[in-house]
Specification:
Helix content of chain B: 25-40%
Strand content of chain B: 25-35%
Distance between the termini of chain B: 13 Å
Number of strands of chain A: 0
Oligomer: heterodimer
Helix content of chain A: over 70%
Number of helices of chain B: 3
Number of helices of chain A: 16
Order of helices and strands of chain A: HHHHHHHHHHHHHHHH
Radius of gyration of chain A: 21 Å
Strand order of the largest sheet of chain B: 2-1-3-4
Shape of chain A: globular
Order of helices and strands of chain B: EHEHEEH
Largest sheet of chain B: 4 strands, mixed
Largest sheet of chain A: none
Radius of gyration of chain B: 12 Å
Largest interface: A-B, 28 and 18 residues
Amino acid sequence: MERFTELLSQMADYLVYDLLGIVEQSLFGNALHYFIMGFTEIIVLVILVTYFMGIVTSYLPMDRIRLYLERNKKSGFGNVLAALLGAVTPFCSCSSIPLFVGMMQARIPLGIALSYLITSPLVNEIAIAIFWVSYGWKITVIYVTSGIVLGVVGGIVLEKLGMSKYVAEWIKQLGENKVENIEDKRSFVEHVPEIHAEAKTTLKKLVPYIFIGLAIGSFIHGYVPESFFETYISKSNPLAVPLAVLLAIPLYIDAVGVLPIIESLVDKGVPLGTAIAFMMASIGLSFPEALLLKKVMQKKLIIAFFSTIGIGMILSGFFFNLIF
Amino acid sequence: MKTTEIKILHSSCCAVGSPIKSQIERIAKKNNLEVKIEELSELEDTMVYGTMIFPSIVVNGKVYDYKKYWTEEKLLSII
């Protein structure tokens, strides 16, 4: 990994300072250098992870998972299972919401289905890869664990609040159905076109987000003075984490787009916990997310859902700042 | 000549008007089959069929996972 970064740095050096002839110590040169390095690194990571996850999901028997959850409906254990499932499935809400409805159809308790729905966008595999490369495995493990804990606790809390009656009316009227389990007998070679097609679509969707996120991140890296955040967002300021969470709600940046911004914020002295709370909130509590949820939940449940995970995110932010 | 009723189920955030529709139409035309295709993408319409995998194809009330039937011959075998 070290070698890879070094190579990237040399490449960016050559591009910015030799080819374009930008002065080495200039603000713009610095930002551009950061951008080129970051962009290459993230694109390489994203391609690797997307294909890897494509293989995983191609073999993930959705129907069988649902059956398994049906048999393990106990509160607690079922929640942990569902959150783990949320962590390994790709993060797009378009694929997680149908599964959520499917769980409701299978008469799986709402709390368990919610544990899945909360963790699914929060723990995403590209974030895992980037955290691992930037901050090492300890922080990565803590990030994944906190996403799973948030899902489990959130699901149980919402269930206890008696939220079950607030799922969308049409879901309640759906008949219980049994999915036929058709064996997938295809060879790996037969899986390849599907994996490739999925990965290609995902990559196409992500590139603009990565570009915008990195542009913002590079700007912060090149132009914002070191001490700027220290003054406003220090660990000692108790309002910093809740504010970061609230500020993230109207921002809609894709999970992958927000990562480079997080990275440059942390470089400039924003505490890691505050940054991670911001990241989780910008993914899990956005307006588009609310619009999607509106299709499957009544208003009361959406509000409870957002408040519960919002509070959970603030708590994890504080917790992170305590540890690091 | 009987018309086969086909429904294509999309996930809620993917646009209708997919290449799948034209693909099926093409195959049908080639083999002189009459098809009537309807595309559904609203959750309320698609979840009724009991699948969680999109895109899926419904032919005469039976649900098929498009990923497993995406080749021409396989599609032809179900329509």
